[in-house]
Amino acid sequence: MTDPAIAARGLRKSYGDKTVLDGIDLAVPAGTVFSLLGPNGAGKTTAVKILSTLVTADAGELHVAGHDLAAHPQAVRAAIGVTGQFSAVDGLITGEENMLLMADLHHLSRREGRRVTGELLERFDLVEASKKPAATYSGGMKRRLDIAMTLVGGPRVIFLDEPTTGLDPRSRHNMWQIIRELVTGGVTVFLTTQYLEEADQLADRIAVLHDGRIAAEGSAGELKRLVPGGHVRLRFTDPAAYRSAAGALPGTTRDDEALSLQIPSDGSQRDLRSVLDRLESAGVEADELTVHTPDLDDVFFALTGGTAIPDQPKENVR
Ligand SMILES: Nc1ncnc2c1ncn2[C@@H]1O[C@H](COP(=O)(O)OP(=O)(O)OP(=O)(O)O)[C@@H](O)[C@H]1O
Q: What angle do CA 40, 191, 226 make, to 5 degrees?
């Protein structure tokens, strides 16, 4: 097996007497997306800052892109790209000028700088806007420019700190596509997000950060299997039908106000059939049936004790 692109053992960081990272172990295989999930203030940005050499850890053995972070921070810096919550884009100059500036910083020749800039502007659909000041760009365009600037140096490992926070759904999906393409090209992506759906969509592996530790780590599927929470919900408009159904289906959780019943279920066909058979025998029909399979929300709430997180779609209506 090749060395992981990012490896941390016993990573610790405190600010004053506040322990932010309390001994974290991570291993991110090259060419994969790793997502660090956590509520506000969990320490995601601190982890990114440490792994990208911007902040020094108090303890831990850290390797990024094959280099020891403590011994060779310059080598790490040369191999990585970072797009943080505070963008590197200068609004006063054009998108193209921002890119060329980046090319200068990476000591590319004028010619090479122009070539790389042209290619990336094209790839990120910014050619038309390239001669306009970046301050006039939409939020999505600025993020695209930010990532394009990060790519000028050809990094093998990219840290994306909440890359879609504040973007509208279309821009968010565009960004997801960009991230998928980066990974197809062999880049390793370390992604922090507050959006569970984003981690579900993109990440090969997900770690949930809570109280300075990794509360759980695994693929989205593995994490979902950690928690119970699957159920069928039946909604009624007729109170009499609601009451008959409640009588016919023991073990349900009732919501008398909403006229809805919640029945624990693994979501399998057999389970659904048994619910429907019982309703049929009782001669009642539900007005709505939804199947809820555990999602990352459930995992997150179970692991972090219900810390607030933005709303996520929770149910699949079948
Ligand atoms: N330079 C600093 N000095 C003191 N405390 C800090 C510093 N940087 C971060 N912290 C504290 O460390 C904790 C973790 O912050 P961090 O920014 O890493 O969280 P986060 O998970 O990225 O949250 P968010 O989603 O809000 O960005 C917070 O309590 C924060 O107040």
A: 75
pLDDT band at 22 (very low <50, low <70, confident <90, very high): very high
**pLDDT tens for each residue of 150-165:** 999 899 999 999 888 8
Q: What's the chain's average pLDDT?
A: 89
233, 262 contact by CB (below 8 A): yes
Nearest-angstrom CA–CA distance, 154 and 187? 9
Output the pLDDT for position 88. Answer: 81
d(CA 43, ligand 1 centre) in Å: 5
Q: What is the C-alpha to C-alpha distance for residues 286 and 279, in angstroms, rounded to an integer?
A: 8
Asked if residue 38 has its Cβ within 6 Å of ligand 1, the reply is yes
pLDDT of residue 131: 97
Minimum CA distance residue for ligand 1 atom 26: 40
Q: In what order do the strands lie in the sheet with 205-210?
A: 80-83, 157-161, 188-193, 33-37, 205-210, 213-218
| Spatial CB neighbours of 196, under 8 Å, sequence gap ≥ 6 | 37, 295, 296, 297, 300, 309, 312
Contact, 100 vs 179, CB < 8 A? no
Residue 318: what pLDDT? Answer: 35
Nearest-CA residue for ligand 1 atom 23 is 41
267 pLDDT higher than 70: yes
Q: Is the pLDDT of residue 5 over 90?
A: yes
